[in-house]
Amino acid sequence: YYYSKIIKVSTNGTIESMTWCHQDPSLLLLSPAIGQLAPRGGSSNLCNPSKPYSDSATIQIRVKNNSLLSSNYYYLLVIGTEAKFWHYWIHI
User: What share of the chain is helix, strand, coil (3-state, %, to 5)?
Assistant: First the structure.
């Protein structure tokens, strides 16, 4: 299992919003916001070795309304699992 969300941060460092993007699609649309990955320990499927678990995911970010984006904010993509999380600054 993984989750992903976009965090809106003002230029002074204040977190303005930390919502799942599919709940607030006015600016950026994130798809998919949640999904399945290989369980901890790897992608081997002991029940059926011919069908390994997925150990990757493709996450798409789309700008829905370019006119609402502001240079007063930064946007941060956060992706997490039960064991780790990663974050990436979104440059628009």
Answer: 5, 40, 50
Main-chain phi, psi angles of 66, to 5 degrees: -60, -30
d(CA 45, CA 54): 10
What are 26's two structure tokens? Answer: 């006015």
* Cα 63 to Cα 24, 26, 82, distances in angstroms: 12, 9, 28
Q: What is the C-alpha to C-alpha distance for residues 35 and 3, in angstroms, rounded to an integer?
A: 7
pLDDT tens digits, 39-70: 665 667 778 888 877 777 888 888 877 766 67
Residue located via tokens 């309304």: 65
Structure tokens at 16: 């303005």
pTM of the predicted model as reported, rounded to 2 decimal places: 0.70
